[in-house]
Design brief:
This protein is α+β, with helices and mostly antiparallel strands. It has a domain of about 120 residues: 3-Layer(aba) Sandwich (Aminopeptidase), CATH 3.40.630. The chain is built from five helices and eight strands, in the order ββαααβββαβαββ. It has an eight-stranded mixed beta sheet, with helices on both faces. β4 and β5 form a beta hairpin. α1 crosses α3.
């Protein structure tokens, strides 16, 4: 599997020490984490380092930083729970200053390329909160279809239960 993939002026690469500040800021952003269906127990420096190491070395998965060509991290992509037949869950996350600027399309493009060409997946799933219409539209633009809604599937830090849309992107032969 390649260590670096270039897409539209950005690269998807393995995390390096210089990425820590951006990844830590993203991990500590409770609103972002809630949109990612995550409620981290700890977000101190050690916990963030453990999270990066765990995501980077997880069997049946992939974790790559999305960075500008100068190396500055702007977000990450991840693939988890690769099963047989080869299908998995995939997701993207961007640092605050890069949302709504087209970088999500670059990140999703890199995610799909790696999923199909490097991991040989036949299907990639995404779980997206129904109150995140921009992410839903982006995924639909890239060929995902709506599978169904899981009612009150995620309990956020706001104490509210949120509906989650399951989407699927099948790769044709």
């Amino acid at each position: 599997m390649s260590d670096c993939v270039a897409v539209s002026g950005f690269i998807a690469r393995r995390p390096v020490d210089a990425d820590f500040a951006v990844l830590a800021q993203m991990r500590r952003d409770s609103r972002l984490q809630n949109m990612l269906l995550s409620v981290p127990e700890r977000t101190d420096d050690d916990a963030v380092r453990e999270w990066i190491a765990r995501r980077s070395s997880a069997p049946g998965g992939l974790f790559r930083v999305i960075a500008e060509t100068d190396g500055a991290a702007v977000g990450f992509i991840q693939i988890s729970r690769v099963d047989e037949p080869p299908k998995a869950y995939g997701g993207i996350a961007l640092a605050e200053g890069y949302r709504g600027r087209g970088v999500g399309a670059v990140a999703l493009s890199a995610l799909l390329m790696i999923a199909r060409e490097e991991l040989g997946l036949i299907s990639l799933l995404a779980e997206i909160r129904t109150d995140n219409p921009s992410s839903i539209r982006l995924h639909e633009r890239f060929g995902y279809r709506r599978v169904g809604v899981m009612d009150e599937h995620f309990l956020g830090t706001d104490g509210q239960r949120h509906d989650v849309l399951l989407m699927q992107r099948r790769f044709e032969d």
